[in-house]
Amino acid sequence: MQFSLEEIKTSQQIFFRLLEVQKISEDRDRELYYAYTGSDIVYHLVRQQASVANCQIERYGDGIYLIPNVDNEVLGFSKRELKAKLCRSGATDKDFYLSQFVVLTLLVEFYDSQGASSKSRTFMRVGDLQNLISERLKEGAAAYSEDEQASAGIAFSNMLEAFAALKSDERGSRAKTTKEGFLHHIFKFLQEQELIHYIEVDEMIKTTDKLDRFMDFNLLNKNYFHRVLNVLGVSEDEQD
For the whole model, what pTM was predicted? Predict the structure, then answer.
């Protein structure tokens, strides 16, 4: 494939913009948006740069997004970095995997529809999510033996132990040693990534257009959806 210096320059501008803001939108970056969507050469050059940088570029609706691969610790986060951001000082792997379970539970609660869009609700109360996390952990620990949990790749008993070790503070503590504070820091992190709107004064969570589109177009194919539900121990009746 032959390409000009101008096409190379344009592809570099697009990729740098994605590095800068993670999203090119039709209304905000009109020229770059149409350069990417209107030129096969520019399109392939940008995606080649993304491949070298160990990430993907996806177009959802009127937005073009930069998505680091799971093992990308330059543009994404390492396990150690995430643990420091989300968990208390001296946290163990139990605490880290509990934080990931919180995110997974949130996603399943917002995106379990089988209609035109996977989104099934517009908001969720923090207290309701906290109670649901506790219920899911207890159900999983009771339903599966230690060996079955290990085979399924999700240690309900260990995460339940980590969750129970967190204190409960109805005053809304922001300390990571409390259940409320633990969830607060996870929600703040997700908000920084522009994935949710965390309305602290109302103790409410809403999802962003970015997350809605990512879930609809990239994650929630049928196989993935049922895999997530099975991991969480959701029965066929509950899926309906």
Answer: 0.78
